Hints:
The protein has two domains: 1-101, no CATH class; 102-268, Tetratricopeptide repeat domain (Serine Threonine Protein Phosphatase 5, Tetratricopeptide repeat). The chain is built from 15 helices and no strands. The two termini are 25 Å apart. By secondary structure, the protein is mostly helical. The chain has helices at residues 25-38, 40-50, 53-72, 77-107, 111-124, 129-142, 145-162, 164-167, 171-185, 188-201, 206-219, 223-235, 239-246, 250-263, 266-270.
Amino acid sequence: MATGTKYRPNDPNNFYDPASSTDNAFADMLKAYERGRNDPHISSQVHAIANDPIARQRYEDYMAEEARDAEMRGENMHERMRREKREWAVRDALSMKLKDRGNDALREGDVKKAWFMYSLALEKSSHEPAYSLNRAAASLQLGLYLFAELDATQALQADMHHGPMRTSRFTPKAYFRRAQARRYMGTLNEAEQDILVALRMLPEDAAVIKEQKTICDLQHMDLDDLKTYRKKSYERTSPETFKEIIGYTVEDIDAMLEKMREQEEYEDALDLD
Length: 273
């Protein structure tokens, strides 16, 4: 399975991809069991649910709701799973195009456009830590430090959800970018905690080493200078600053994304090939 990516065409080992399922529900179930048995993260999740009455009840309620929804659609659960995989594949393929557009914009120096493209990619595939990290990087360049911190945290949460066997390569980047964001915001103790985690994972990375030194130097700053530093950082997180940088309020962007969700016109609106 592609690390951190749900969509990988024609990969029978990627259980999110339509190619991983067939018309034979029993054979697919056996394959899923084998994957779970060989993945410590999945095994631990199953074990935790099985031994926690509350978690087990929640899972049973969830599956019952899924079954009711499938019945309303005239599907059995296997048909539902295959349909959802096809839908995921379409969404994830589109989000990859949006991410690529963001990368192109970043290379061309249009950081604001990159930020928007990564936001659209996240709207389609919020489970992907790579897109959160990309937007965090753009947010750092734009001075949107609070948003960078939130995106780095979201990437870490997505990483944990996917499991260490599949997405651990994103973890050090997430800690590194969150450390940068927290350093800019003046929350130096939290920044230090993050950068030390990143440093343990990437002990020879020059950027991580440099960031750790920068944070250390700031921690020895004069108290009055530190207050001034934090005040400037706080001003960068205000709603007014966000609108000044991006050109829209957070509410404006939420409304635009909601409209796109309703119309499902990402590809047409953005003229994606």
